[in-house]
Amino acid sequence: MKDARARTWRLSAILLLAGVAVSIIAGVFHAESHDANDHVASFTAYAESGVWTAVHLGQFIGMALVCAGLVALWPAVDIQRHAVSWTARFGVLSAAAALALYAALQAVDGVALKQAVDAWAAAPEPEKAARFATAEGIRWLEWGMRSYQNFLLGTALVLLGVVVAAARDVSRIIGYLMALSGLAYLVQGWIIGASGFSAANTLPTLVGIVAILAWTVWLLVSALRMKEAAPAGHMG
Asked: Is 224 helix (H, G, I), strand (E, B) or coil?
């Protein structure tokens, strides 16, 4: 049993760190404008991007790995005898829902928005206003979906952070950092829902990135150092 739990901790940690790494690498190639809420500048940058759809597929793969890693924490922690077993269950459900909503979000952002901004950029002048309004409507839909996806992911991180902090296998600080990154996502969700991709989101985004990098690396190091049970009959 101890062997299986150690291996599950390692699987979870590898999935989580791999997901964060893939998301960051994909994000490097994401087309940006100086102000993401300046839709003319943003849509122009998006229309000029030749890797837009591939970048968003990469981001989805990263999120899928992260959510798989969060779900894998459930069997890693001995929740059958744990006082926070229901917290773990709700955390896993939140992670699964966050992934489903992220898939829909990337379909809107990575596919629909790209088609809309391409049509706007290529449209003759008399049609540009209507094409721009269509693209802007999709952008606002993206705000709403990203806002609620952040709420769900933040909830999953807070709940599972509580579970990890209560576990005895790794440092409680890892759980605290997980919860901190979750709180950062909750704040991001509120800001995006209220004002889109505004400058107010810079600080919580930075806190979330730093916290999630710290705890995923720490978790992997801790998992790799876990000792498995000695084989039966081992005397050394």
From this structure: helix
Residues 6+ apart with CB under 8 A from 194: none
Report d(CA 17, CA 15) in Å as an integer: 6
> Does the predicted TM-score (pTM) go above 0.85?
yes
Instruction: Read off the DSSP letter of residue 168.
Output: S
Phi/psi of residue 233, each to 5°? Answer: 85, 0
C-alpha–C-alpha distance, residues 119 and 193, integer Å: 26
Contacts of 12 (CB under 8 A, 6+ apart): 69, 70, 72, 73, 76, 219, 223
Tell me what percent of the residues of the chain surpass a pLDDT of 70: 93
Residues 53-63: tens digit of each pLDDT: 999 999 999 99
DSSP letter assigned to residue 200: G
Handedness of CA 41, 42, 46, 47 (dihedral sign): negative
